[in-house]
Amino acid sequence: MTGIRLRLEPLTRAAFAPFGDVIEIDGARHFPINGGTIERYHDLANVEIDSESGGRAIISIMTCNETASLPYRVRVIERHPRGSQAFIPMSPIRMIIVVAPPGDDPDPASLRAFMSDGEQGVNYRAGVWHMPLISERQDHAYLIVDRAGPGDNCDELSLDAHEIVVDI
Amino acid sequence: MTGIRLRLEPLTRAAFAPFGDVIEIDGARHFPINGGTIERYHDLANVEIDSESGGRAIISIMTCNETASLPYRVRVIERHPRGSQAFIPMSPIRMIIVVAPPGDDPDPASLRAFMSDGEQGVNYRAGVWHMPLISERQDHAYLIVDRAGPGDNCDELSLDAHEIVVDI
């Protein structure tokens, strides 16, 4: 048991840049369209899909069957080598996000934890290690934009040998 | 002036099938993932992107600078030949959706209008004519999943010569 305590950082574009995109209006490039009736906050997240294997982007919804609260023990992380994966709450809720940079043998000491502001979504770049979705409310709906297609696209890594806890 | 009154139909997968996908949990295929902690409502919308022209899928946000109410006069429809376009409210709000089947010369008599239930999102298939986003609340945020890339991807068609009004 090593015992690592991850302190939650505020989720900002700059801090999250090594791992992917923060999907939010604040600070985003925007311009009017349709004769000025609509404001478009443009290209907040790039949907990465490997084209060689015949993958395609799909939209899904996830809900959690259990609730989670702080302090939270991180038992597993996963990565999707063939595509990005975006999570956007379908009504406001804070999200706890735990990530590690891409690589076949992620160092538990490289893990970082972020807390969203309730409105934000995130898009994990292909290959970025991340904790599976947890939610402070059961059945809260999250919109998912990720890849479907042939080939294995999920590697899981158990962190049980390490005592990794997220807290404020 | 012809004068067409479009009566709002409830938005259901079956009724909307000729135009695209309804993004909702109700009636969707779902299965547990991540050891049963998460329920995934899978592949609710196919993100269509033309691959020949170097297009890619992006995630954006739109807000409306004006509010709209019923009865509503439809002045323009548009289509995106190179990709689908999804609209999902980032917190619950009903959406008025007006669509016509693909084709270079859409018949105003073929227009149909739908009202979502507040939770639902929609994904317009590539080439499907649709009214630009209108909103009953200013600055309400809608998540958009569509295409960026080279080439013209928006055709607009004025309906001013027709008096087309959406109402209950």
Topology of helices and strands:
The structure is a homodimer of 168-residue chains.
Chain A: E1 4-10, H1 13-16, E2 20-23, E3 30-33, E4 38-47, E5 56-64, E6 72-73, E7 76-79, E8 85-89, E9 96-100, E10 112-115, E11 121-124, E12 129-130, E13 142-148, E14 155-158, E15 164-167
Summarize the structure in short.
Two copies of one chain form a homodimer. With 168 residues, the first copy, chain A, is mostly beta strands. Chain A is 2% helix and 45% strand.
Task: Describe the structure using short key phrases.
homodimer, mainly beta, 2% helix, 168 residues, Jelly Rolls, 6-stranded mixed β-sheet
What is the rounded distance between the termini of chain A? Answer: 21 Å
Counted by DSSP, the helix tally of chain A is 1
Which secondary-structure class do the elements of chain A indicate? mainly beta
CATH superfamily of chain A: Ureidoglycolate hydrolase
For the largest beta sheet of chain A, what order do the strands appear in spatially? 6-15-1-10-9-12
**Basic shape of chain A:** globular
Chain oligomer state: homodimer
Count of β-strands of chain A? 15
CATH class of chain A: Mainly Beta
The helix content of chain A is under 10%
What is the name of the CATH topology of chain A?
Jelly Rolls
What is the CATH architecture descriptor of chain A?
Sandwich
Strand fraction of chain A equals 35-45%
Q: Compute the gyration radius of chain A: what is it?
A: 16 Å
How many domains comprise the coordinates of chain A? 1
- Largest interface here, residues on each chain? A-B, 51 and 51 residues
Question: Are there runs of chain A of 5+ residues with pLDDT below 50, and where?
Answer: none
